[in-house]
Amino acid sequence: MSTLNYPIWLKDQSDNQQIAASKRDRTRAKLKIAASELLNHTLYQDLHISLICEKADVGAGTFYRYFKGKKELTEEILEDVVQRFTDLMPDSRQEGKHHSMFELFAQSNLQFFRFADANHGLYRCLLQVNAQEFYLGEIFENSLAAWAIRVTKSILHGHIESCEDTLMKIDLKESRTLIKVHCLASMLNDITARLTFRNEKSLKKLFKENDFDEQRAAKFLAVLWYRVIFGNDPKGYTAESPFDNTQQK
Fold first, then answer.
1. 20 to 30 A Cα–Cα from 137, which one of 146, 169, 225, 238?
2. Residue 249 or 228, more confident
3. Which CATH architecture best describes the domain 6-70?
């Protein structure tokens, strides 16, 4: 999980750049690392500059040389988190990557689950902070819009390039596909939030009783994505397949 956990990844990046980095850059990195670690376990409204400075081992006066307040620091962290998540997501337009659209959907869902779980506090902050701080909410809205466009373009490109889909090629309209992606993303966001920071015990119990782990959930949702986008099920797979213990997970 080290590459998925944003605070750990950020610390690794900082450690690798220690020799070349200036003292100012190192101090700024320490503040970001400290704040991201706190946000991964603390509600935004409970995040105080004194806690950040204590964890980063810097004085309060030093903090204000780099950031106007916790809002500015949180904005920078959340924007980094979104970019990190985007960089880790599979894309049909990446060179050397040849996957069917169903495989792409399943891998994307699984990566989404794992990234959200590794950064459950930051994920919670990204989803909930817009209700408390409207200016921070723009980060989530803008990132969701950009992500939906990226996914849509990946779908359109993959649909053209995929040999598997050649026989059922349909005329995908970009605007209509984008609407579908937004709706499907809302579904993915909701189920992920319920399983991570909301920690809904009844839902987790239901999943466990049916041996419905993250890989099966990712494939189940991939079937739904495929069905909504293309109008039918992927070859050799249905919504019941993830529940079939005779099939390889």
1. 225
2. 228
3. Orthogonal Bundle (1.10)
